[in-house]
Amino acid sequence: MCQVAGQHGEVRAAGSWGDIIVLAVPAPARADAIEKLGDVEGKTLVDPTNLLNADWSYAGNLNKSGAEQVQEWARGARVVKAFNTVFAQNMASGKVDGEPLSLLVAGDHDDAKKQVLELGKALGFESVDAGPLANARYLEALGFLNIQLGYGATKYGANIGFKVIGKLAK
Known about the structure:
By secondary structure, the protein is α/β, with parallel strands linked by helices. It contains 6 helices and 7 strands, in the order ααβαβαββββαβα.
């Protein structure tokens, strides 16, 4: 976002304008982007980041997710983890070969989570409530697995994705 928006003031203007802000920046740029956004109090801040080291190894932590770190930096924002388990090529439709993918959404703020779940449905995903923001730890590991399946030894490419099968127990 910082590179696309350019000047510091443009990033701040975008942050003040949007109700839902997607933090689509490389992992090392997250803190800087949040600082440049300015006041994000009450805003839904979607973290689609995949935590990768420069050598493409996993930089995540199962004791504390990158999304939880974003919540600490963006106090007052309603951080939601989503879109990190989907390749960019599949985000516009939410599908692979006509088959809807699951959009896994984790967050602690019900209204913010609902916004992102509805956004996913509007795009064509089958949105899945993945629980509290602490579950972002597992979504980040799943995102890394997706990258490994796509571009690691198996080389499936980006035309893959995950789907949750089953119905909610009531």
